[in-house]
Design brief:
The complex is a heterodimer of chains A (about 260) and B (about 240). Chain A has about 260 residues and is α/β, with parallel strands linked by helices. In chain A, strand 7 and strand 8 form a beta hairpin. The radius of gyration of chain A is 22 Å and the shape is globular. By secondary structure, chain B is an alpha/beta fold. Helices cover about 35% and strands about 20% of the residues of chain B. Chain B is built from 9 helices and 9 strands. The longest helix of chain B is centred in the middle third of the chain and has 13 residues. The chains are: A alpha/beta (about 260), B alpha/beta (about 240). Chains A and B meet through helix 1 and helix 6 of A and helix 9 of B. Chain B: One of its GO terms (biological process) is methylation. Chain B: One of its GO terms (cellular component) is mitochondrial matrix. Chain B: It comes from Elysia marginata.
Chain lengths: ~260, ~240
């Protein structure tokens, strides 16, 4: 079953190391002037696709990203990692604030059909909205089998054997192709893009599209009511003896008096 | 710190010695490729630029500093088929590090032009030919943009080499157009590792695969996702 065509969804998110700040209107987080990078789970999906290509399982890898112009940097990263070409589905910054997994799933499903893909690969979730919906929705829209939270992907005749991370253990399933896969943390360790790869990625083809080109209406289906910071931890205090500590605990009713 | 303006001034012919230092400083002599007979100045994993970003590189897009897989396959093919090149005139388009032209002369070609529009590549080609004890003619003219009148030249060329030039769709288009205009008596050999713009190009149906090579681990590291490279002969009997 050589020659699989793989679509990889690559979301541009706020970098995992950045301290997130909620906007004053509490309807989102501050993104201006903040370092962004590829969603780490999507990076794992790209890496797995490239390894499939290196094992001659896959023939072509197409990276897709929906969002503002800066998403092109994310796609260049995917191509430096080994994707053959990419598609940027441009969504302006204002619309992007309300772009939801369903919209992205519809776009990815359409791209998969246009590109005659055998696999749609995404991260299990994005680290910004933590939705964990896109891959599953793509599978539903295309009526394809899905193997989510993958920690191992192997070929088995015409099918794929996928090990999934589930609560307290692993589950191994067989899926027929075409299929949707979503990558979990332990699937692999993504490579760093080196200068030669980055240079060559600048020359790889990147198509520019709009959601309308895929007939997808990006009007929001949900509205965000409130985004809040996690509660601030109360400051502690330093005590000079065990007796004072026990006294405090008793006062607070945390130990029987 | 980016010093591009500096080398641009130098590349104007002001200071070849400066560029030689720059190339020497940022590269290693490498034989870790498909043609270990040739020692070439390349950016290897041991060089700090390997891990650099494009913005931090003092060399502007040093394509010549990487031994492209298509070029490696083509150069290997030349070294393995000396009879084909004996006494022939050769033009290596997009020569990069100059390997294919150097190989052609070392197996007996009467003359090889190493054509690359990057002035730093010209210096690297000179350094590489000196290292390997042969003489090739570096040439920085843009052949692909040349009008057909200038292409009269190609009637004197026996063999045209195109090593890994199909890395960009626009470029692929430019090359295929150019191939229609060169003199019909010239033989055209193309090296490519299966790049998207090569596999998808209509030209592909006019090519005959001569040989396929497995890439070494180092080349795979600088070409994520690619594992082999082939050499094709362009057959002009097929109209593209």
């Amino acid at each position: 079953m050589s020659g699989l065509r793989v679509i990889v969804g690559c979301k541009r998110v706020i970098d995992y190391a950045v301290k997130i700040r909620v906007k004053p209107d509490k309807l989102g987080v501050v993104t201006d002037g903040v370092k962004h990078s590829m969603n780490p789970f999507d990076e794992i999906a790209v890496e797995e696709a490239v390894r499939m290509k290196e094992k001659k399982l896959a023939s072509e890898i197409i990276a897709v990203s929906c969002g503002p112009t800066q998403c092109q940097e994310t796609l260049r990263t995917a191509m430096a990692m080994g994707a053959d070409k990419s598609i940027h589905v441009e969504v302006d910054a204002a619309t992007y604030e309300n772009l939801q997994p369903l919209h992205v799933a519809k776009i990815l499903a359409k791209v998969a059909q246009d590109e005659k893909a055998d696999i749609v690969f995404t991260g299990k979730q994005a680290i910004d909205d933590d939705c964990n919906q896109t891959g599953q929705m793509v599978a539903a829209l295309l009526d394809w089998p899905q193997a989510t939270f993958a920690s191992k992907v192997e070929k088995a005749n015409g099918d794929l054997t996928v090990t999934r991370e589930i609560d307290g253990g692993l589950e191994t399933i067989k899926v027929k192709l075409p299929a949707v896969l979503t990558a979990d943390l332990r699937l692999n360790e993504p490579r760093y893009a080196t200068l030669p790869n980055i240079m060559k990625a600048k020359k790889k083809p990147m198509a520019k599209k709009k959601p309308a080109d895929y007939g997808v209406d990006v009007a929001p289906r949900q509205s965000i009511l409130k985004v809040e910071d996690p509660p601030v931890r109360q400051a502690g205090s330093k005590l000079d003896s065990v007796e004072t500590l026990v006294g405090k605990l008793k006062d607070a009713g945390l130990v029987p008096s | 710190m980016r010093v591009s303006p500096l080398w641009r001034a130098a590349a104007g012919g002001l200071n070849e010695a400066f560029l030689r230092c720059l190339v020497g400083q940022h590269t290693r002599l490498s034989q870790d490729h498909l043609t270990p007979e040739l020692a070439l100045h390349l950016i290897t994993p041991a060089c700090h630029l390997w891990h650099s970003t494009v913005e931090n590189s003092p060399l502007d897009d040093p394509f010549w500093a990487f031994y492209w897989p298509g070029g490696q396959a083509l150069t290997r093919y030349i070294l393995d088929n000396p009879k084909l090149f004996h006494g022939k005139t050769v033009l290596d388009v997009g020569s990069g590090c100059g390997s294919a032209a150097i190989a052609a002369v070392s197996v007996g070609a009467s003359e090889a032009v190493a054509n690359d529009i990057d002035p730093v590549a010209e210096i690297a080609i000179k350094m590489n030919m000196e290292k390997n004890g042969v003489i090739v003619k570096p040439d920085t003219r843009n052949y692909l943009a040349s009008k057909s009148t200038q292409l009269q030249d190609t009637s004197k060329i026996d063999i045209i080499l195109i090593g890994d030039m199909f890395y960009d769709p626009n470029f692929a288009h430019l090359i295929s157009n150019w191939l229609q205009s060169i003199h019909p008596s010239s033989m055209v050999l193309i090296g490519d590792p299966g790049r998207h713009s090569f596999k998808q190009h209509p030209l592909h149906s006019s090519l005959k695969l001569l040989h396929r090579y497995k890439l070494k681990k180092t080349s795979q590291l600088e070409n994520n996702g690619l594992t082999e490279a082939g050499v094709w002969m362009f057959n002009r009997l097929h109209k593209v």
